[in-house]
């Protein structure tokens, strides 16, 4: 069967964002010498990896037709705890604790959404506030991490070239893709995204799957929190405000349909790199951060409306083609 | 749903939220008697005018089956527009008109994104939240203190008294809700909003111009957020680009708490007002008790989750426990 070959492959073969990224890189490299060194691309990859890890989890949520607006606050909450416990229990135990906390937060979100049947976006909007407030209750001052080894997790470059952050991203992305394409859970998530009613009828346990989706979001968000704290070297309850925008834009820009049912983790990552490139480029062109915010909002709008724009263009093309056919038919009959 | 349950929810719609407010008052009264005295209550009402007026507009959005997450940014934008206009020597009325016009434009943008580009309402307004906040910061990147020279006219809104006794914000709040109630119940617009919210397809088939209704709804939401912004600016005498951060949560909480169905089609005007008062009162009580900002935020989140839980239970009961 041919289908098996495509298992890890993207199902609908849309590499648009990858081409866009490559063209953008070439364009930058031609126009400005700042964008030719390898360190520029290393920075972009590191920067993108931090968000893209969170994007892996978000891809699951968006595929199922939901959203998680609380990821930024989850990152802050995990980050604040992480900086407190690292000096006490060491690096690896604290990372494990953080992952457990991430899973717990995700499970809590999922329970609210699945059991009370409240739309996900409004639940996670409330939790966004709640987790941020919790972080502030635990510690309202910024904390610096002193552990050199921990800081290296996200900043070390293997052989001086490959950033570890990117390597970790790839590993997590492979795990995510396997979950999405190879497991029952992944198929259930796709089914729910296609049609919730159909999923219920075909016997899928929808509430359970929804809870698991948010557990996945929580897990990947916790991973990304570890990476972000490691790269910043500090944490603060007010950190990463607005991360959810970047993460959701990269998922949607990566072609995961907002209506749910299809999507790919690979494209999410490419889109995250694309967004990081835009940001870095804006930084080097000296565009101030307020304008950057506006640009990000506009990109988000474009990403969200891209399916509709495509539909409109398609409709026009189809109409034109029909007209041409009509004309040629008339000519032949004449 | 059984008859008894139906009756329960009907009564709940009318007085449920009021009962919760009374319970909270009683709890506060026991914990800290000074919170529940007439002066404090008047202050609470005055403060709730801001989120209350914004919630009045938000109710229309939710009732139409939409959502507006950008009200916080619109509020900040209004605040900045008014402050910049006043400090550059324009008259109070002109500045207010400017602010309202800018807000209406924001509403139109939201509406067009939702109807013409077919982005889901909450997603579109999530994006515009970011964009409007950016525009606000580009326009005015730090808080502008309004000295009494510029603030004379505007200050009237927050300190003025109607008939010499009733503070103006309370009057504004009540008037807003009376207008909102009349529009919701007696006008074609109100009926259209309900129709669109309960079944968009059916509304379209009946000949309602759904797109136009939607755009109008978002203009209403944006303008009411702007009115709230004007009032808030008057209260704090400052034009602040971050004044409205997180404000959308207060408005949404008030609407959900008030008993407006999240699925659309059914609004509760006065419930929304009581909801707004409740949110403000909870925050203020915690403030007086001297707990930190974090706990107040937490309280709003808890109240929202509580409100969502009630609406969730209601939906589950309506579906017959399935």
Which descriptors apply to this entry?
heterodimer, A: 334 residues, mainly alpha, ABC transporter involved in vitamin B12 uptake, BtuC, two-stranded antiparallel sheet, two-stranded antiparallel ribbon, globular, B: 322 residues, 13 helices, 77% helix
Walk me through the structure.
The complex is a heterodimer of chains A (about 325) and B (about 325). By secondary structure, chain A is an all-alpha fold. Chain A is built from 14 helices and 4 strands. In chain A, the strands form 2 sheets. Chain A has a two-stranded antiparallel sheet with strand order 1-4. In chain A, strands 2-3 form a two-stranded antiparallel ribbon. In chain A, helix 3 packs parallel to helix 8 and helix 3 crosses helix 13. Chain A starts with a helix and ends with a helix. The N terminus of chain A is likely disordered. Chain B is built from 13 helices and 4 strands. The longest helix of chain B has 29 residues. The radius of gyration of chain B is 20 Å and the shape is globular. Chain B has a two-stranded antiparallel sheet with strand order 1-4. A two-stranded antiparallel sheet of chain B has the order 2-3. In chain B, helix 2 runs antiparallel to helix 10. At the A-B interface, helix 6 and helix 14 of A face helix 5, helix 11 and helix 13 of B.
Proportion of helical residues of chain B: over 70%
Strand content of chain B: under 5%
Multimeric organization: heterodimer
H/E element sequence of chain A? HHHHHHEHEEHHHHEHHH
The CATH C-level class name of chain A: Mainly Alpha
Secondary-structure-based class of chain A equals mainly alpha
Task: Please report the first level of CATH classification, the CATH class of chain B.
Answer: Mainly Alpha
Number of domains of chain B: 1
Report the portion of residues of chain A in β strands.
Answer: under 5%
> Number of helical segments of chain A?
14
Average pLDDT, all residues of chain B? 85
Q: Which two chains share the most extensive interface?
A: A-B, 41 and 46 residues
Q: What is the count of β-strands of chain A?
A: 4
Give the overall form of chain B: globular
- By CATH, the architecture of chain A is named Orthogonal Bundle
Distance between the termini of chain B: 11 Å
**Major sheet: arrangement of strands of chain B:** 1-4
């Amino acid at each position: 069967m041919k289908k098996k070959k495509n298992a890890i492959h993207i199902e609908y073969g849309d590499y648009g964002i990858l081409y866009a990224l490559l063209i953008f890189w070439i364009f930058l490299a031609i126009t400005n010498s700042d964008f030719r060194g390898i360190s520029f691309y290393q920075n972009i990859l590191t920067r993108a990896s931090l968000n893209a890890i969170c994007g892996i989890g978000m891809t699951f949520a968006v595929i199922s037709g939901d959203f998680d607006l609380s990821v930024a606050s989850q990152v802050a909450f995990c980050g604040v705890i992480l900086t407190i416990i690292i000096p006490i229990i060491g690096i690896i135990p604290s990372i494990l604790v953080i992952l457990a906390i991430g899973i717990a937060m995700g499970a809590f979100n999922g329970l609210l959404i699945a059991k009370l049947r409240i739309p996900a976006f409004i639940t996670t909007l409330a939790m966004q506030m709640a987790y941020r407030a919790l972080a502030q209750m635990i510690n309202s001052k910024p904390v610096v991490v002193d552990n050199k080894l921990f800081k290296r997790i996200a900043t070390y470059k293997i052989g001086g070239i490959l950033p570890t952050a990117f390597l970790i991203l790839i590993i997590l992305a492979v795990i995510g893709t396997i979950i999405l394409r190879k497991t029952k859970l992944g198929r259930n998530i796709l089914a729910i995204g296609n049609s919730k009613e159909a999923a219920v009828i075909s016997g899928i346990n929808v509430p359970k799957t929804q809870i698991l989706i948010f557990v996945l979001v929580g897990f990947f968000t916790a991973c990304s929190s570890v990476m972000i704290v490691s790269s910043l070297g500090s944490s603060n309850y007010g950190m990463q405000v607005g991360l959810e925008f970047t993460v959701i834009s990269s998922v949607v820009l990566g072609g995961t349909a907002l209506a749910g049912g299809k999507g790919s983790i690979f494209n999410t990552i490419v889109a995250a790199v694309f967004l990081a490139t835009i940001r870095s480029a804006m930084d080097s062109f000296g565009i101030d951060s307020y304008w950057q915010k506006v640009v990000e909002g506009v990109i988000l709008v474009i990403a969200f409306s891209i399916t509709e724009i495509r539909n409109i263009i398609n409709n026009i093309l189809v109409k034109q083609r029909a007209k041409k056919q009509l004309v040629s038919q008339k000519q032949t009959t004449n | 749903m059984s008859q008894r349950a139906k009756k329960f929810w009907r009564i709940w719609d009318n007085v449920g939220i009021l009962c919760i407010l009374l319970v909270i008052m009683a709890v506060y009264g026991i914990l800290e008697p000074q919170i529940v005295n007439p002066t404090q209550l008047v202050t609470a009402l005055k403060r709730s005018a801001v989120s209350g007026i914004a919630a009045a507009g938000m109710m229309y959005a939710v009732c139409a089956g939409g959502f507006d997450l950008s009200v916080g940014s619109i509020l900040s934008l209004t605040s900045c527009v008014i402050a910049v206009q006043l400090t550059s020597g324009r008259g109070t009325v002109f500045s207010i008109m400017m602010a309202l016009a800018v807000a209406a434009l924001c509403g139109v943008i939201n509406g067009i994104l939702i109807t013409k580009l077919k982005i889901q309402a909450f997603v579109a307004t999530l994006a515009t939240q970011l964009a409007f906040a950016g525009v606000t910061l580009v326009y005015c990147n730090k808080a502008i203190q309004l000295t009494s020279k510029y603030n004379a006219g505007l200050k009237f809104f927050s300190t003025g008294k109607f008939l010499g006794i009733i503070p103006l914000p309370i009057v504004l709040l009540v008037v807003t809700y009376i207008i909102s109630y009349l529009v919701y119940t007696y006008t074609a617009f109100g009926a259209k909003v309900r129709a669109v919210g309960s079944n968009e397809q059916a509304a379209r088939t009946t000949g309602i111009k759904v797109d136009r209704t939607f755009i109008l709804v978002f203009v209403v939401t944006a303008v009411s957020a702007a009115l709230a912004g004007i009032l808030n600016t008057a209260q704090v005498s400052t034009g602040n680009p971050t004044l409205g951060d997180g404000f959308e949560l207060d408005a949404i909480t008030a609407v959900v708490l008030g008993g407006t169905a999240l699925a659309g089609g059914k609004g509760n005007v006065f419930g929304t007002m009581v909801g707004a008062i409740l949110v403000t009162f909870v925050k203020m009580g915690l403030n007086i008790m001297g707990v930190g900002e974090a706990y107040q935020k937490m309280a709003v989140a808890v109240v929202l989750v509580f409100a969502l839980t009630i609406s969730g239970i209601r939906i589950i009961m309506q579906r017959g426990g399935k």
